UniProtKB/TrEMBL annotation:
InterPro entries: Cullin, Cullin_N, Cullin_repeat-like_dom_sf. Signal peptide: none annotated. Keywords: Ligase. This is Ubiquitin ligase (Cullin) of SCF. Belongs to the cullin family. PANTHER family: CULLIN (PTHR11932). SUPFAM superfamilies: Cullin repeat-like. GO terms for molecular function: ligase activity. Residues 17-288 form the Cullin N-terminal domain. Residues 53-72 are annotated as: Disordered. The lineage of its organism: Eukaryota, Fungi, Dikarya, Basidiomycota, Agaricomycotina.
């Protein structure tokens, strides 16, 4: 059921932003807007971008005519959206996440991420005119690399104001992910969708600074892959200590262990990146079979 709170239609830029912010709040909360409400928001986003001092009616601000003339409405709107997705937006969610651990944390994180990214996608469409008339033009003609479409702006804010502060508390998200992966490795049935959701979010927030439309795996590596590979390799090394005699029995046991790990890696393909799977296989074979051949440590982490 659509909520009817977006009235009256604004006349000034200040009223227009309040109107857009109220709509953004509803969208980010996952509330249903009617087609008419969404259309009116779209129109006001366009009106904000095309505002001129001469088009203002009933301006009750203290700005002088000279101050008004110096305002770039598109730049002003982008700045307001940056502030909208600032630290305060994430404060309540972050505090709640900090109180959770292990799978409970992953479930909460995944739920918040799904809601947040869906809302950000809707806002990206709502502010499409801002992208076409300002962000894209500035990036193309002005060489600006500090401007992002609203969706990417929201993702960067999630990383800066939610993910990174959360990880300052003992890298608890990383620990929760690795613990769940270990349970899967040990043969336990886990929530594959949960792992995929959280790991996919880490990929999504890794935006290439040279090209806003390219993804970078830096967040995925920083908050999961690097530590997961290191701990997996240590696990392989400890296992290989049992089979260093080189006897036929030990050789067969080592090969069976490698196959067992390969089976896990294949099953984990539903949430691990292909690059991670490939590197896991390499480290497993080099560490276990290499140690068996008397070449401990060959080909391990650089």
């Amino acid at each position: 059921m659509a909520i009817d709170v977006l009235t009256p239609v604004p006349k000034t830029q200040e009223e227009r932003w309040d109107y857009l912010k109220a709509g953004a709040d509803l969208i980010m909360l996952g509330e249903e807007l009617s087609f008419t409400q969404y259309q009116e928001l779209f129109v006001e986003a366009h009106n904000y971008c095309t505002w001129t001092p001469s088009s203002e009616e009933g301006d009750d601000t203290d700005r002088t005519a000279e101050q008004k003339e110096s305002i770039n409405p598109q730049e002003d709107l982008y700045s307001k959206l940056q502030d909208y997705f600032g630290p305060y937006y994430f404060e309540a969610s972050r505090k709640q996440a900090e109180a959770l651990h292990n799978e409970d944390l992953l479930k909460y994180y995944s739920s918040r991420w799904t809601s947040y990214s869906n809302g950000a996608g809707s806002l990206n469409r709502l502010f499409n005119y801002l992208y076409r008339s300002y962000i894209k033009v500035q990036a193309r003609d002005g060489g600006r690399k500090d401007l992002y479409p609203v969706f990417q702006l929201a993702l960067r804010s999630w990383r800066e104001h939610f993910l990174s502060p959360l990880q300052q508390h003992g890298r608890k998200l990383t620990r929760a992910l690795i613990q769940l992966a270990e349970r899967h490795r040990e043969g336990e049935t886990i929530d594959i969708g949960l792992m995929d959701s959280v790991l996919s979010s880490l990929v999504s927030v890794g935006i290439d600074t040279e090209n806003m439309f390219f993804l970078s795996l830096d967040a995925y590596k920083e908050h999961f892959e690097t530590e997961f590979l290191r701990e997996s390799e240590e696990r392989y090394r400890k296992a290989s200590e049992t089979w260093r005699s080189g006897s036929d029995e030990h050789v067969q046991a080592a090969k069976a262990r490698v196959q067992e790990e390969n089976d896990y890696i294949s099953a984990a393909g539903e949430y691990l990146r292909p690059e991670t799977q490939e590197e896991l296989r390499r480290r497993c074979e080099v560490t276990i079979l290499g140690d068996l051949a008397g070449e401990p440590g060959k080909g391990t982490t650089q």
